[in-house]
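Ticket closed. Logging final result for Dihydrolipoamide acetyltransferase component of pyruvate dehydrogenase complex.
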Amino acid sequence: MSIHEIFMPALSSTMTEGKIVSWVKSPGDKVEKGETVVVVESDKADMDVETFYEGYLAHIIVQAGDSAPVGAAIAYVAETEAEIEAAKSLGSSGGAAATTTAPEPVAATAAVGAPTAASQNGSNHREGRLVASPRARKLAKELKVDLTTLKGSGPYGRIVADDIEAVVGKVKQPATPPAAPTPTVTPAAPPPAPRTPAPAPAPVAAAPGQVVPFNTLQNAVIRNMVASLDVPVFRVGYTITTDGLDKLYKQIKSKGVTMTALLAKAVAVTLQKHPLLNASYSDQGLVYHPDINIAVAVAMDGGGLITPVLKNADKVDIYSLSRTWKSLVDKARSKQLQPDEYSGGNFTLSNLGMFGVDTFDAILPPGQGSILAIGASRPQLVASADGSFGIKQQMQVNITSDHRIIYGADAAAFLQDLAKLIETDAHSLTL
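Final structure:
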């Protein structure tokens, strides 16, 4: 008997359990090796999970909406149709799947589909197989687009729905012809559950006295915040005049530049002079990171937060950085971020100024050396050195740093140079 298990994969280093968003395949469906069979909600995003076996999806153990620990079996794949009933019986009895080969630790982990990571060269073909998201495949079929002619824009060259829409000029899905409807456009049976999950219920929608369980993302945030309590930190505040930055923003806002990107760029440029603030602690010693990757906190609908990362923010021009940021925010709020888009941050920004908050302290994320809390820019009566008074726009920033590697003078020097850049040389951020 050749029945294999599909396990709940670990889609991130902090993930301990996953939630099934939807099954792309139904029991009895034929599956190919490397084909997406299920969408799993990790602690960061929703990911496609593939099977490493060819055969038939025989039995689903964990239904859509339910959760399972990492490494737990979530479905059975039978190599032949004749073995489907045996797999169902195995699922009912709760027994372990029998395989034709002796069980080995490596083989067990190989049964988990990787979250659509393609080859190193960025090609959208892997071992002769096309790599495309389920939605892209469905859309390509409906719009009659040959996937083999496309170059994917997704992670590692993966073809995504946007690539299909770009080819057809973003034409909407064709309506069903009145004379002869086809199964592709109007299927006789309901199609597999869509890639986009239903939004998690917001806490405000709960009835008075009701206890709403934390979702996967919220649990991840809780674990990280508890872990941060083990780090000795200190906080330093600084007042920055933003008249120059505000003037620059008004000039280039129409070109798609965001204030978040401007602030991230300013921080990244300043970090070039202060590599210690871009470093992090390890048991082996001080880790100086070669790249300046700025993580920016984004609130999620339904609770929780995530920190998309602007890679090499000091080297990317402000216009490209703004476009990247907009794309990351859209993906974050639709839970479509890929692991490489929310990992690798070395310094974090948390901007509550957009909500009118004057000042606040941020909690240091595990594995980083510093996080900068940014308050709102407001008009203030300011005295100049000659004793005259004037109205200037000012914002309060507060940095939280790991005191094991960064000291008060280091943080103060960084904030001083950041203020100097914003106050006297903001225009250089567009160069």
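Residues 98-123, 125-129, 170-204 have pLDDT under 50 and may be disordered. No further action required.
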